[in-house]
Amino acid sequence: MDTTGQLQKDKAEAAENERLLIARAQTGDLDAFDQLVRRYETQVFNLAYRLTENYDDASDIASEAFVRVFAAIKKFRGDSAFSTWLYRIVTNAFLDERKRRKARPQVSLEEELNVEGGTLRRQVEDTAPGPTEHAELEERRRVLDSAIQELPDFQRQIVVMFHVLNMSYEEICDVTGLPIGTVKSRLNRARLALRDQLEQHWDLFHQ
Questions:
Q1: Residue 120 region by backbone torsions, left for phi larger than 0, else alpha for psi between -120 and 50, else beta
Q2: What is the CATH number of the domain that holds 64?
């Protein structure tokens, strides 16, 4: 079997294993649920952290999300991927917490967003900065953080999903419950808002 065939086989086996774990968890099997938690706890925390930019807040949101998953897993019908359903719960937990606490989380996207020609593009990988670049990168991070803070929550979460999690428009629609036109519109408006903020620091991002 060639490499592609083996990868497809492994992917199919992983999907079937997950389906069985979900089915067992839906019957109240705590061991199966714990396995699902271990499988997704890193992704859930990373999403929560990107939305809050605070370790403690991210931990609280991740914990709350899994509590909600435990309570609602019997309702999961498989209409979307389990990960998509899970991300929706994490996002809702974040928004609910924002409403309660009136917090102002900061999202730093320096490692995920790159400004080229005045537009935002996905960045596949970045190399570690040398000593002479450190101060410059820190200033870029500060400027980006400041710009991201100005985005409304509904724009910030879409920017994070698209640029950080590399989710497709369709996946974002599943998570947010929004039509694809609205997702694209909000993402474009967020990019324009960030571009306007970053144009004030043109030299910093175009060297």
A1: beta
A2: 1.10.1740.10
Query: So what's the pLDDT on residue 179?
Result: 93
Domain co-membership, 22 together with 61:
yes
Phi and psi (nearest 5°) for 121? -130, 155
- For the chain, the straight-line distance linking the first and the last C-alpha, in angstroms and rounded, comes to 48
Global pTM reads: 0.62
Residue 103's pLDDT band, with cuts at 50, 70 and 90, is very low
Mean pLDDT for the stretch of residues 152-171 = 83
Round to whole Å and give the CA distance between 44 and 55. 13
CA distances, 141 to each of 32, 137, 148, 198, 207 (Å): 40, 6, 10, 11, 16
